[in-house]
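Technical appendix A lists one of the benchmark inputs used to test multi-chain prediction within the project. The record comprises three sequence entries:
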Amino acid sequence: MDIGPLVNGLYGIPVLGLLFQAVGYLVAVLPPNSTSIMSQATPLALAALCGVLCERSGIVNIGIEGTMLASAFTAWVVGVALNPMFQAAPSDLFGITIPLVIALIAALGVALLISALHAWLSISLRADQIISGTIINIAAFGVTGYLDQLISKTSPAGAGEFTRFTPPDALTNLPGVGWIVSMFLNQGPIAMSAIVLIVGAQVWLFRSRWGLRTRAVGEHPRAAETVGIDVIRLRYRNVMVGGMLAGLGGAFLSIEATNSFQLGMTNGRGFIALAAMIMGRWTPLGAFASALLFATFLQLGQLINIAPPGGDLGSIMSAVPAQLFDALPYILTIVILAGVVGRSIPPAADGQPYERESAT
Amino acid sequence: MTVQTGPSLAPALEMRGITKRYPGVVANDGISLEVHPGEIHALLGENGAGKTTLMNVLYGLARPDEGEILLNGQPVRIAGPSDAIARGINMVHQHFMLVPVLSVADNILLGEETMANRVFLDRKEAHRRIVELGRRFGFEIDPEAKVGSLSVGWQQRVEILKALYRNARILVLDEPTAVLTPQETEEIFAVLRRLAAEGHSIVFISHKLYEVLEIADRITVIRRGRVVGERLPAETNEDDLAELMVGREVQLTVDRGTSHPGEPVLRVAGLQAKDDRGHLAVRGVDLEVRAGEIVGIAGVAGNGQDEFVEAIIGLRRPTAGTVTLAGTDVTGRSPRDINEAAVAYVPADRHRFGLITAFSLADNLVLTSYYRRPYARGMLRDGDAIQRDAVSAIERFDIRTPSATVTAGTLSGGNQQKAIVAREFDRDLKLLVLDQPTRGLDVGSIEFIHRQVIAKRDAGTAVLLVSAELDEVLEMSDRIGVMYAGQIVAIIDGRTADKNEVGLLMATGGAERGGATPGEARP
Amino acid sequence: MSASLVPAPAPVRRPRGLASRVWSVTAVPLVVTVLSVLVGAAIIVFSELLVPGHPFDLGLPLVAYSALLSGALGNPDAIVSTLVYSTPLVFGGLAVGFGFKAGLFNIGAQGQFLVGALGAVMAGVALADAPAPIAIPLAALAGIIAGGIWGFIPGFLKAVSGAHEVVSTIMLNYVAVQLLAALVSGPLKVPRSPSPVTFDVGNAAFPVILGRNGHLGIALALLAAIFVWWLLYRTTWGFEVRAVGANPDAARYAGMRPKLITIATMTFSGALAGLAGTSVLLGVTHSMTSSFGTTVGFDSIAVALLARSNPLVILPAALLFGGMRAGAGLMQIKAQIPVELVDVLQATILLFLVASPVLRRVLRMGRRRAGPTGVDTVAASMGGEAVVV
């Protein structure tokens, strides 16, 4: 049946027709770009996962943005420094080279250190966790900016980047679902590991011993302590592991999504990730779904510039300044925060400093 | 003071000469305690006497400075809660250590997880064991129920199950009946007796004399960190124990005299209000409080009392009904309006509603009047006037503090409460509302506050007193209202009120129901 | 666990001499600054290793610091320059600090700064030919109002929906950048100019009152600090702000309205940050380009933290960071160290500051309160009301 005339008819309805046009545009443009959307979602999802891990343990981590930025920078710098030394060609699988691997490890190490710092300030010194996170952000911006300036003087060559895995065409060309295959499989190593980590985290949080202890510590740490759980150690561990997840997200930005570093390249993702975490009700899968939503909007912003919709919808949109679309993910975050947060209940002990009952 | 023990086995638990010092105070001073297998041993003392510290030492939450602990005759060092648990010592805390959003099973599993393999929990097995344990001690429990949805009595049972799941041999219960009705107390006592019969040793910490006399096999009394006496229940009575606890002859009850009530001051009609989660907590309350009388509201915590009080004071918006003060409708008015109508409020949670602990004592004393003369003219504050009146209040209400400028958070609980009393009582009042006014205070402060309240009543104030301490309600009230499931189910004359009658009303609301017996109790 | 032990004797306070009191207030900031200077020196040395091509000079830190100092204070022009750089930091620090007092984290100073400048430039351009006594106050007012609006939004959202202001203010920072770009390359742009720039504000510019370029904003900043101090500690409004920050529930019982105060505080805070942007625009640049924007946002947070939100202490704190910014240019010229080193120094100062309880213990200061009492958070001493001395 030819639905063309029907569609045109729907599009032609005044005012309501715009809604249909918008839907039509989305249906046309999103699936082919699903791979990019997943790529956009990866750093958000990893950062949100970091948030989930930290806040489920009772620690607020505003410094995810800074952690990601520092890791992105570290990965890039290490790659840049090591590339001239190792001249081996990139492997076929994911374009792995030794410098890239070392760069990734270095990025994770830096993230570990930063989150250890946040953990120390928040847990042992009982500093206000928002202040601690904010200071980490300031420090990350400052140090990466400074070092970037220094290093740019030496006109470095690129750091290299991880490449995507290409699934067989037979799968990606499947009608109807091919784009899903492409979305999850046509990705680089970090993006793919993100998906695995998210599923793993979901299972871990609700079915494993450490997940149970984590949730207890985030809700009622005193109760956990009285059954013999070391609240402090558990929080340290979770914050540091979470930090590494954020570091993975940061490394993704500089050595998988692109092959470069710009000052402030995280662009607020660390904060958007917090909104995704809240919207996802502090669960890994929920955070991932929310990250996908945000990524869709980020992608749409770019798509509208490159491939604007036609018809009435198109003419309306071209009248709007391009900057509005760039601002869209941030506005969306605010809207979601305002709409969702009131109804979401964080872990009960979230953000509260904890003092061990046991005196020495 | 030798006490004859039962069969000559080694005591299950012995604490010898335990001394524990904190900066500025000796919490435990050479305390010795012996508990035999199958014995229910009561540790009696008022708030702050050192009972909790002693149990913290036992549970590994604190390291004693001197003394030793012996289990079954062997000296042991208890490194921490897990160590204590591993040795069969389990503690049921006064404030439940349960995670409300987790299920009964998850709460019990926590820290002692039954594993299916190295990673995953074995919830099925846990459920099975929990149900079985419950049955063994006389109740049916649903392992999947969320703890937050359980009544307090059932949460108590979950706490006990937690201990049993870990093969506790020694069970320490810290003020277990603080939040229970008399009937629930009986039920828990039945469970404890069965536990004792099976050879468990129980340490029962309390400050409630009559309960201790009823349940304990032996009683140790602690005062100011020292053991001041050991008794068998048969050899003692409430007055003797009270005197030991406090160190002097204690007037157990303040004589409130007769009231001469006048016109109704507070009239509440059909009042309804929701709790923080949006459920209806106050479900149509009708009440009248007259000038010069004390109306006490008895009820198990969580039946809507806090919400009721907050609705009267203006901290919570009623969803239906009216509140009338001396003829004027004040329903839904702001706290300030109601305060200015000569209403005073002593809140249950003094750190939340009563004081700003980060502010100075002086600022706290003007918390409800800072915007008025003489403390402010327009928006300009008058620091001298504030300071002057603060100094005067400190003296008149005997608040122990080095100055008026100290941070309120540094004062002791009793002095903080006195500060609140100083602020609220220091004027002519039409209505005085008190919610748990003496919780956690030492006997001296309790006496002081009770006297102040009676003085206010005699000066013509209408007093509404909400308390979970049935004794306090019985002692202070000219009339008693019982709050159950958001309604006042009965109003009784304070002179003739019978404790058991009130307790029954608290537990059942007066409805004809088959009382839950230990063998059939369900959540 | 609520071991309210038998009433302990009230803590004895020894009478403190003036020297002792001064020491206890200044010790930590001093030590923090000294440590940061040392760390900065280490970073400079380390940087030399990173960038090949220069002879390794262990004395480079000295060169760098002396250039920094002389650029900040070396001559009257430098001092004026320091004052000019410090001015927006005073406003911004007051903005963030005022928010802290109410328990609000206004991380959106950067966005409010930009929007304030936008308001000022729009009004200023419109009033460019009006007489100065009219143009200046009106343009400044426009900037204040614009910043206030940008602060009102997150305040309103927090009061009404509970959306945490940290994330919403940061998001608005990004939106402000886009807004600025859209306006400056769009309706405000000077036609036919090669790069996006607005018209000049003409008569609405702040007059110079000191030296070569010390503008009116300097005096306004000083007045603002005194005003905010007076507001917080001498008025009932300030009392309410601090009460809501310390305990919103008790504040409610006391008859205050926390939601209203949240909105008012964020608006006022935004207005102050907007005034920061206004002062830079009307006092220094006189027009706006699409790359208008400085480090004021983060600097304001640093100033507020260093000063523990005390409005009067914000003045020297702002001078410290302002001076560093003023001298950075000379440092870059003389020692080849990028100006971003100031960012690193700032971060170091903040990190040491947050870790100050450790420092206190090392310096054996500040007796911890006796016994198992409530938890003392650093936030309380970073701007809340807990007494430290």
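Chain A has a mean pLDDT of 86. The CA atoms of residues 17 and 56 of chain A lie 44 Å apart. Comparable benchmark entries are summarised in Table A2.
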